[in-house]
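User: Can you help me understand a structure? I only have the sequence.
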Amino acid sequence: MNENEISKIILDCAFKVHTALGPGLLESAYRECLAYELRKAGLKVEKEKPIPLIYEEVKLECGYRIDLLVENKVVIELKVVEAFNDVHIAQTLTYMRLSCCNLGLLLNFYTKSLKNGIKRLIL
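Assistant: Let's start by predicting it. Here is the structure, written out as tokens:
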């Protein structure tokens, strides 16, 4: 399954979770529910996946964690904020580079309609 096929399933599941829960809960609640839905859809999901920073020949455990890593191909960064800002985009792009993933989805569950809280990022 390629990244585009995976992202369609991810977005379908995200819409399902947002419709059921609405905006305003904690990020951790959306993460758990989305991970559950993705697994139900048959996808491999890792929650709060630690990723090291490799500098020269040194592997540094700096505490970076991807909210959800799906099929080792798609990074999902979840937010519950009024609006995305440049830091959210930079964070997701960094996680994508560190995990060698070409596709990232930045999802904001705070929005009234989730379609207004989706940012697709490609390296």
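Now, to help you interpret it: The chain has one domain: 3-122. The beta strands are 45-55, 58-70, 74-79, 103-108, 118-122. Let me know which part you'd like to focus on.
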